[in-house]
Amino acid sequence: MTEASTEGRALVMGILNVTPDSFSDGGSWPEPEQAIRRGHELIAQGADIVDVGGESSRPGAVEVPVDEELRRVLPVVEALSPHVRVSIDTVKEPVAEAAVGAGATLVNDVSASLWPVAARLDVGWVAMHRKGTPATMQDDPRYDDVVREVGAMLAERAAAALDAGVREVWIDPGIGFGKTVDHNVELLARLDELVATGHPVLVGTSRKAFLGVLGAGADGVPLSPADRLPGSLATATYALQQGAGMVRVHDVAATVQAALLVGRPLAHGRDAGTTRETEDTW
Ligand code: HH2
User: What does pLDDT average to over the chain?
Assistant: First the structure.
């Protein structure tokens, strides 16, 4: 079983997209040198893992050729992996393989299909659920019972990966990937059912569109990604409280603070919180 915590708290995976078009940080650090600097910031903020991606998976995203994806991610993986655990966010086998060669030790796979690669390379694997592809996934997604269907698919893929010899398997409900706002809410509300599968659970709600819809003010206009930190923190905290072992986030420093609280004082009660004095009164 994967050890899903550090110093008494769950893991925080920091998002590092080396892309022009990711929905929130796209174009912020499009070149490897800028992305490496950003990666060091995420490390300084307390990221346990930095998740490097060279292709957006947002609805409608355009597929990136392998060569271009490699050009974006490999220098970043190579530069950061001596300093932090690096995962590679890709659905392409050659990219996963090259990134592992450059130092990545976790394959974050939103297609939930690359477990044979993870087995062959002896690295960890994240199986994320999505319905359809980025081009089509938000076209009227339907489920009879979203939690049961997502859970069954993930349990089946996780079992295949474990059978193939992958030693570290995470499951992830894929918030926003072929899901309506209600589907996302239901997956979070019943996250304990995924936790009950016994596989460590990763959750990525950070700045996603459903938070903009649910957090909208009286005018009903959805919040922009930059205004979704409160919802991101609330949902990450809720997921951790339900037993998620890791959250994937843009706002690492704030989430580490929340994870410390959920993982220690709140999880262990008074003993964990009352022995230390504060110097200021408020
Ligand atoms: N979400 C995104 C990308 N990769 N991986 C996992 N395991 N879980 C997620 O929820 C997940 C993911 C989408 O977010 P982001 O990387 O910020 O945007 P984009 O796909 O536009 O690059």
Answer: 92
Identified catalytic residue from 130, 179, 208, 228: 208
Strands (E), the chain: 5-6, 9-17, 49-53, 85-89, 106-109, 124-128, 169-172, 202-203, 246-249
Amino acid at 67: D
Rounded to whole angstroms, the Cα distance separating 266 from 242 reads 13
CB count within 10 Å of CB 44 equals 10
Question: What's phi and psi for 159, nearest 5 deg?
Answer: -65, -40
Residue 108's φ and ψ, nearest 5 degrees, are -95, 105
User: 273 alpha carbon to ligand 1 midpoint, in Å?
Assistant: 34
**pLDDT by residue (tens digit) across 35-91?**
999 999 999 999 999 999 999 988 888 899 999 999 999 999 999 999 999 999 999
The gap from C-alpha 102 to its chain's centroid, in whole angstroms, comes to 21
CB 108 within 8 A of CB 51: yes
From CA 114, how far away is CA 30, in angstroms rounded? Answer: 26
- What is the per-residue pLDDT across 188-245, written as a single tens digit (0 to 9) for each? 999 999 999 999 999 999 999 999 999 999 999 999 999 999 999 999 999 999 999 9
Give the residue from 101, 71, 67 showing the smallest Cα distance to 86: 101
The shares of helix, strand and coil residues in the chain, as percent rounded to the nearest 5, are: 45, 15, 45
From the CA of 1, how far away is ligand 1's center (Å)?
24
Secondary structure letter of residue 13 according to DSSP: E
